[in-house]
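Lab channel / #folding
Pinned by the channel admin:
"Please post every new chain as: sequence first, then the structure tokens as a reply. Keep commentary short and put observations after the output so the thread stays searchable."

First post following the new format, from NK:
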Amino acid sequence: MYAAGGYYYPGRGPAELRDEMRGYLDQGYAAVKMKIGGAALADDLARIEAVIDVVGAERVAVDANGRFDRTTATQWASALAPYGLRWYEEPSDPLDFELNRAVTSCYDGAVATGENLFSVPDVTNLVRYGGMRPGRDVFQMDAGLSYGLGEYARMLEVIEAHGFDRRSAFPHGGHLINLHIAAALGLGGCESYPGVFQPFGGYPDACQVTDGRISPTDAPGFGLEQKPGLAELITELTA
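Reply from TO:
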């Protein structure tokens, strides 16, 4: 598991960002992800360095949410290269496979993408034309956003047929559905949103994160009824 956060908030600087990341470590997470691209490059690098001070570079991923053009994406690749980060996520539009290839061609670290790819043909084109590298890069397709678990299983077949291990898949989303999918299908892991997107983000109290690992409970289905805040919402909607 890794904790996703590090958003931009008015009046919050590197000190507050450090406190946020320390909080994730205190909750049992061992790796984190933060946003980039919403500030000047120099300011964002200062934010990254603040998080590295707390977590360690190899446990920090950065996410551009597809906002960069080719020039900016490759400039950022050059700027990030010395840090040795866990991964550089969605530098560009996920369907711009040529641009993704340009980034992987100039960046030795891992690149992560795929959360906005919703079908097997999309994933097939990513592995054919996007420059993804077996043993290094990360696939983040989300069964909940696509055509369900059947389509997601076929996506895994595609990446495995092209020489990728399914443990390179880390579903996007940070909710109980993808936790169960990652555990059931033997994936590399998945993200968590312990601080945002409530009541869906994060997990029930019975799902304790320890040293960056977590197990689903034995509750029926996905265990949604065990999630504080979400359980009450389900009761309200189904009453």
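NK: The two ends are 34 Å apart (CA to CA).
TO: also worth noting, Residues 199 and 229 are 5 Å apart (CA to CA).
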